[in-house]
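pasting for ref
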Amino acid sequence: MRLFYSNPDQTVIQVELDEGEILGNHTGPITMFVPTDPANKEYGDIQEKQISVEDYVNPVTPKTESL
């Protein structure tokens, strides 16, 4: 199971579940996006189980060469 914030405001968590892993109402393998809303079952599960969420990492974009 891998969880990380998918935006800098930390309002959405990207969750990657491997085969047989369970979070809320979902069983892996699956990739899903979970809003950081206490009313959301999966987010509540993350908090209840105190699952660590990795920080957001800004994607690296390749530099283009100028002509």
